[in-house]
# Entry
Amino acid sequence: QLLLMSRGIEDILEAERAPLSELFEQFYAAIVEDDRPAFLDSIAAAAENCAEWSHDFRLHIPNGTPKWVRGNSIPEAPRADGSIIFNGLIQDITAARNLSVKLSYQAQTDTLTGLVNRRSFEEHLHKVLESVDKTRSDVVLAYLDLDQFKVINDTCGHNAGDDLLRQLATLLASLLRSNDLLARLGGDEFGILMTSASMPQAH
# Structure
């Protein structure tokens, strides 16, 4: 049972002012449908164990993209009738979430070509190699580099060299399957990881 909800939730929902009696219904209706089961389960688990509640979920915003919010609440000591009151808050964490996604993307992506970078490629390679013993599937690892690439940079400039790398990345990606992994390992070096592919298929 909801005892009180602050009108600050209206700011998060970007909704028009509504009677307090309708505020929770408005809030619950805004929860993205795919997020509702986990939202309800998290609340039920916190209530059952009289434990702190913390959960991230999305809210539909009128004429906008969903917002990420975080709910936090702390239970008071059980009352004489066995009921428990939770005091908490809902925070808009959209900006922090977007920043986290951006930083994660930058950590895994080569900024010049948009391909996977060396670090992410090596992590994926290790996971694939660990699974090979179980799946017994064929894996092909290819390494490519450009001959005389330094000459292009020295004679035509680094901008021309960068353009060439971007064009090569686009060309290589167009020749691979959707489940193949193409990465720029650094400089003029590229790596290709092909799972469930034999050598003849790789050629």
In short: The two ends are 64 Å apart (CA to CA). Residues 83 and 171 are 64 Å apart (CA to CA). The chain is about 45% helix and 20% strand. The beta strands are 53-59, 67-75, 86-92, 139-145, 181-186, 189-195.
